[in-house]
Recover the amino acids of this structure.
């Protein structure tokens, strides 16, 4: 990470990093499309290899869980960075190294059908040890496919 | 599905089907290695594309969730088939079409490091509408990486 | 239950029944204050016997879980009754006898301090076997204390 | 808390305190019957006021959640105390003040019928910020009534 950047540029770099340098996110085509310290959005498009049920052409539940987990992790990370006293790249990197999912609950509401999928997250608990985010996933028609709740270790 | 097979052969076909014909399971290399109406086992080996954190070479949380969901779904399916009065391929197929994950909770205990990963499931609630399974994931050294609980729609 | 009542009157009777005839709800002072087939509200006031931590005068986590479970169960019941073809008291009673909580997740966001507590629920999945509700709990100042998600067996 | 006691005596005092001085535990009759840094046990007997469904004489789901939460909290507390470098009453007290439930999942397996109920917990993740416990509840006949998973803030 370039150490001469401003916090905003670092945040932009992070979105790029999450979408392009994390192998599993890249495999699934998960793209971080927006985020701030309260909300985030992750998008991906249908690919046949994401199918969990070939008879019905619906997403595998693990794909949904992965997208929700990423959306939650991104908003938690942004919130964590926001709270850093010194937003140096070293401090940001150190914080991100500590970030981890403790537990994730996914509620599947409807079969995962669609051309594009949008996972959104907002932070519901922000602390110096633990943060909690709630997530939703819709398809391009606005059909609500899933809910999620994730608890993350921070700091 | 060949309609002249015995129930046991059908079950064998199913394990093959889950491992080889479901695109996302195949992408992840998830293999159903054993199952009966009470327990199941799913194995997969490390691949770089399953990485969630390139700095630390650990599994993406979505991979863990996908493996636990499959292990739970397999034992629930086997249990459901066991309870069918007439185990014809048509009845089995019809039952499987109704099977779906309602909710899944994953507890991440340790970073997902290892060469091979073993997800096991056992059924804890078996009903004619809903079944619940508990899952665990270990690596090849026996380190306990994750717990899961899944609620499935059956019948 | 009086069998000569209209569906609306039956629903009113139910709210009264849940608040007054279920011993544990009565012990906690849980009162069903409104509900329809999409949302519900349960209220209760602080009592010293609901304390989980005497040093800090905060609600026991089990009280929060009980209030969220009731709010979720009420909206699921109302939704279930709405979907009955024949809303006779017998059919309603039979449906209610089948209703049960499969699983409940409670996320505690802040210490449970307050004079009055308001649990609200809305239905997020409505089916003929399983329904899912999301719940929230606030205090009289509007502080958000807890979130919940409940999966219920219906039909 | 008497400051001249040995750690073991403090632990004994704690069990007494949890069972007798926490108003809601006392109301429900929850008694901490054993615990060490890896497992715990909480028992309580049937009382009509714990009824959730008067037609079927079964426990309210909130009672089950409360018992599981206590069992989990007790084993997490014992584990936390075990890890303290200086087990002075002041340090123990300070640690206990930080302890809180972050989230709790309860899986209801069977209707809560019985004369006595036994909730047990074991620790599955032990850290300096967060601990996770898994719980089970049986009745006096050994029937398995519920499972639980709790994530706790420590330290």
């Amino acid at each position: 990470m370039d150490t001469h950047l401003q916090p905003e540029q670092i945040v932009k770099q992070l979105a790029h990093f999450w979408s392009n340098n994390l192998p599993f996110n890249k495999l699934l085509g998960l793209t971080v499309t927006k985020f701030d310290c309260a909300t985030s959005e992750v998008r991906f498009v249908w690919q046949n290899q994401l199918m969990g049920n070939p008879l019905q052409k619906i997403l595998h539940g693990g794909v949904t869980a992965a997208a929700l987990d990423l959306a939650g992790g991104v908003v938690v990370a942004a919130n964590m960075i926001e709270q850093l006293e010194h937003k140096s790249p070293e401090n940001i990197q150190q914080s991100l190294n500590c970030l981890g999912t403790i537990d994730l609950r996914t509620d599947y509401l409807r079969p995962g059908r669609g051309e594009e999928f949008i996972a959104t997250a907002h932070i519901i608990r922000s602390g110096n040890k633990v943060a909690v985010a709630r997530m939703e996933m819709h398809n391009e028609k606005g059909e609500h496919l899933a809910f999620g709740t994730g608890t993350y270790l921070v700091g």
User: Anything to note?
Assistant: Residues 61-82 of chain D form the longest helix (22 residues). The helical segments of chain D are 7-20, 23-28, 61-82, 89-98. The interface with chain B takes residues 105, 107, 109, 124-125, 132, 134, 144, 147, 149, 151 of chain D (CB under 8 Å). The mean pLDDT of chain D is 91.
